[in-house]
């Protein structure tokens, strides 16, 4: 029985891969990439930019870089709304506690 392989006998050149816009999953795999989250990709690029020195990523001063806020591999604004709501709730409890004459 003859089986067909999913490997292309004539791999595409870098130019051919780069010409596929937007890149598809198949083209990305053919170029050697594995599936990953956008944050993981950003972190990998920051490490690449800093010669794979995690300490340099942490100390990065390229604050105008659009990836800078994400360099730790975390979304800097996730949870910000919840924190603001919690702060408002906490300040409301302190005000109520003080007006009741209770201990803060």
How would you describe this structure in keywords?
single chain, 104 residues, mainly alpha, 47% helix
Structural write-up:
By secondary structure, the protein is mostly helical. The protein has one domain (14-99). Helix content is 47%, strand content 0%. It has helices at residues 14-19, 25-30, 38-49, 54-58, 80-99. The longest helix has 20 residues, at 80-99.
Number of helices: 5
Order of helices and strands: HHHHH
The stretches of 5 or more residues where confidence is low (pLDDT under 50) are: none
Radius of gyration: 25 Å
Terminus-to-terminus distance = 80 Å
Structural class: mainly alpha
The biggest sheet, with number of strands, parallel, antiparallel or mixed sense and barrel status, is: none
Please estimate the helix content.
Answer: 40-55%
Name the overall outline: elongated
Average pLDDT reading: 82
Tally of discrete structural domains: 1
Residues in β-strands, percent: under 5%
Question: What's the short story on this structure?
Answer:
By secondary structure, the chain is mainly alpha-helical. It is built from five helices and no strands. The chain is elongated, with a radius of gyration of 25 Å.
SSE layout and pairings?
Layout: H1 14-19, H2 25-30, H3 38-49, H4 54-58, H5 80-99
């Amino acid at each position: 029985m003859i089986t067909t392989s999913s490997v292309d006998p004539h791999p595409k050149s870098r130019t051919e891969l780069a010409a596929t816009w937007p890149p598809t999953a198949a083209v990305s795999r053919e170029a050697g990439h594995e599936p990953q989250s956008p944050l993981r990709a950003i972190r990998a690029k920051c490490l690449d930019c800093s010669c794979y020195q995690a300490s340099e990523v942490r100390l990065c001063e390229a604050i105008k870089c659009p990836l800078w806020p994400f360099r730790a591999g975390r979304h800097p604004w996730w949870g910000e709304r919840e924190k603001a709501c919690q702060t408002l709730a906490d300040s409301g409890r302190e005000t109520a506690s003080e007006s009741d004459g209770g201990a803060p």
